[in-house]
Each structure stands twice: as structure tokens, then as C-alpha cells.
Amino acid sequence: MRITRRVAGRRQRAALVAATGLTATALLLSGCGGSSDSGKGADADGTITLTVADFGQFGYKEAGLFEKYHALNPKITVKEDTTAEEKNYYPKLLQQLNSGSGLADVQGIEVGRIKEIADTKADSFADLSEVVDVDEWVSWKAKQATAPNGAVIGAGTDIGPMSLCYNRELFEKAGLPTDRAEVAKLTAGGWEDYLALGERYKKKAPSGTYFMDSASAMFNAVVSSSPEQYYDASGKPVYRESASVEKGWQLAARAASKKLTQGLAQFEDQWQAALRKSTVATVVCPAWMAGQISTYAGDANKGTWDITSAPGATSANWGGSFLAVPKSGKNVDEAAELVKWLTAPEQQAAVFKAIGVFPSNQGAYELPEVKNATLPYFNDAPIGQIYADGAKSIPEAVLGPKDGVIKDSISTQINNMEQRGTSPDDAWDAAVRTIDKAIG
Question: By C-alpha distance, which of 336, 338, 370 is closest to 353?
Fold first, then answer.
């Protein structure tokens, strides 16, 4: 499992967000500025077809954005080629980059891959710094897509600011507060407070229930809320010495030893069943996770769940993607203009309204579709405000080319502590062996 984000089905629930007083037809989408009809790949009549290759669910179809773009630019048609699983999409992208053929006009890139692409394949992509205004994004988003030579190879789409989803009914049965502000106060000190709350929950927990679904999710949140994660600024892997990794590992080991976690691999069948049967009281919740919970917990649990801010004063980011424009395309300028339009505030707000993924463009945060957004399924939680506040407190972190490999390896061993009772020392040694073999 990719800890950064499980792509297939990660954002399945269309029309997830309820923006107060608005309907889909009320969205105000800005037009495209300066898109040319005379690209090298134009047909004889001057029409252009732009191809967009992506993975999972970016939300453009659900928000009707490609049709809107065609209405604004009648001589441009956009066709989307979507791969369900990012783990299948990325090897194909690398193969196409290496061969120099088969690339779309616009390519999606997942956050867990962007560093490797920026470091090793930047010359294959157009510099978007003169097309998009990177100052509109949260600062750390622009940094992620910036190559060593200063080129910005990808425009930010969504991000995954962290929150905490909790089952109100289970909290009430365990004698815990259910009001989101009170829950936030109980975890204000950080993830140690979160575990302390878990120990309170366990004392009166309903039979067969657990405080959290997965300690690896908590581990990822701890690490992702720190500027130092798996690599240092020079590009050296420092996961063995990283203070955030050590802290996250110790907390995960504590959660496993105290049986606070059900030890489920997120997104798999048993995890889905646990949500449906209400056997877990909390889930670490990046913005896109709400769609997962509402989908698998089902209509019977509507109103049972709520959302509050993530533990601690510093939030974390889990997930997010970019749109990049290969230089080999026949219509590079037109593709860049499409990317600019798709990542503008109005369009990111439209995608948020359609499928619930949170914008990386800060200009969207003040639009009513985002600012006033609530989730009826989650007791009308004011997610627009919760996620925006979280996004503003996420630190600028150093990413490394093999972040995904490191996270996956550690996640596997945390699951072994939970499910098999592997000792923390043995689990850590196994993770180190796997990581060092993979990264060299």
C-alpha cells in the first residue's frame, strides 16, 4: 500500500461537498486566457485535440471541466486517458519518458513521484513558472515541483491537509466528548494526546471496537507534519536519524502494544468492513479520506461520523498531485494554457465541490464553494474552514526520490507489529533491510 495515497477509488463519492446556498450550475468558471488555435498539432481546419493522461480520479469529468473548456475554446477538444491505479500508471510514464514517445499533452504526477521526476526528468517537461502563478499555491506545493535548475515542472492540483475523523456514537458510548471543538482540545498537544485519548477510549470501549484503524496512518501523519522526514536538504536519506520518523515509530509501537489499533491495511476489504460495521472510532483523515469513509461506512452511518482538526499545532499533508506538460507534445503552449486553467481557483473549487479533493491554489479558499463547504454525512462538519486552516500550517518539507518506498516498507512492518505481534526492534530491522536494498 502506498502510504502517500491510495489512488484507485480514493475519491469515489461524487457531489461529496455541500456548499451552502450553491448548486453546480452556479459555479463561476473563468475563461482561458490566450490559448492559441494554431498549434503544430492542429487539424486542417485549425482544431486541436489535447490529451490528458492521469490516474485515479482527478475530478475533471465529474466537475464537467473539459466540456466547459471546449465551450470557452471551441477549436480545442480535451480527451482524458485515466489509469485506475497509480502504481500501474507511473511505470508506464517512466517508460514513455525514457523512450521519448507515447506521452500525452498533459501528464498527471503524484506527489510521491514528483521529486524523482523533478530531479531526473525535468528536461522532458515544459517550465510552467511563466505560465502559472506559483505564488497562488501554498508555498510547499510549488517547492515540491521545482527542479534543481529552478524550473517548475508541474502545476499543483489537490492537496491532502490532515484532519481527524471520529465516530460520534462510539465516542459517546465510551464516555468521551462528541463535540468537535472539545475533541480538538483533547488532542491539541499533538499525537501523544491522541494516544492518551485512545487509552481513555479503551477503558469503556464498546466490545469489539478499537480506537484507530491503523497505526501506520498515524505514523504517516506524524512524519508528514515535520519539515524533516526521510531525506535532508542535500538529498541524503536520513530516515534512520530523522526525529519525526523516530517519534512516529515509537507512537505506532505504543499503539500496537496497547491494542489501540485494529491493525487494518487501509482501503482493503477488512478496512471497508470495519467502517461499515463501526468497529473503529477514529481515522487519520486527509481531505480526500472523507469520501472513502462515507462510501464504505454507507448511508446507514450518515451523521455517525464527524471531523475535527488534526492533533497538534502543525498539520500534515497526505496526498496531492500535479499536472505537467511534456516538451515532446505537438501543442505545448495550448497544453500549458489548459493546465493553467484547470489549476486556477475557480476550477479547483469546482473539483472540490464535485468530489471533495482540496485545492492547492489558495485563491480557492475564499470562494464560497470552498469557504462555506460542509459535509452533511459528517454532521455538517465545516470542512472548508477545517482544511484551509490545516493547509496553512503544513510545514515546507524536504521530499526524496524514494519517499514512497520508505513509507511502504515502514507501513508493512507497523502492520506486522499490529497483526503478528512482531517486536518493535525486529520490525524496524526488517524495514531497514528492505529500504536499504531498495534505495541502494
Answer: 370
pLDDT band at 40 (very low <50, low <70, confident <90, very high): low
Please give the single-letter amino acid code of residue 266: Q
pTM listed for this prediction: 0.85
How far apart (Å, rounded) are the C-alpha atoms in residues 73 and 67?
10
The sign of the CA dihedral 281, 285, 290, 296 is negative
Alpha-carbon distance of 113 to 92, in angstroms, equals 13
- The closest of 116, 409, 3, 417 to 239, measured between CA atoms, is 409
| Cα–Cα dist 109/52, whole Å | 11
**Mind spelling out the 3-state secondary structure of the chain?**
CCCCCCCCCCCCCCCCCEECCCCHHHCCCCCCCCCCCCCCCCCCCCCEEEEEEEECCCCCCCCCHHHHHHHHCCCEEEEEEEECCHHHHHHHHHHHHHHCCCCCCEEEEEHHHHHHHHHHCHHHECCCCCCCCHHHECHHHHHHCECCCCCECCEEEEEEEEEEEEEHHHHHHCCCCCCHHHHHHHCCCCHHHHHHHHHHHHHCCCCCCEEECCHHHHHHHHHHCCCCCCECCCCCECCCCCHHHHHHHHHHHHHHHCCCECCCCCCCHHHHHHHHHCCEEEEEEECCHHHHHHHHHCHHHCCCEEEEECCCCCCCEEEEEEEECECCCCCHHHHHHHHHHHCCHHHHHHHHHHHCCEECEHHHHHCHHHHCEEEHHHCCECHHHHHHHHHHCCCCCCCCCCHHHHHHHHHHHHHHHHHHCCCHHHHHHHHHHHHHHHHC
pLDDT digit string (tens) for 242-266? 999 999 999 999 999 999 999 999 9
What letter represents residue 77's amino acid? T
Taking phi over 0 as left and psi of -120 to 50 as alpha, with beta for the rest, 75 belongs to alpha
Q: Which residue has cell 526524496?
A: 400
Task: Give the Cα separation of 34 and 123 in Å (integer).
Answer: 25
Pair 431, 410: CB distance under 8 Å: yes
Q: Which three cell numbers stand for residue 132?
A: 502559472
- Under the banding of pLDDT at 50, 70 and 90, the label for residue 404 is confident
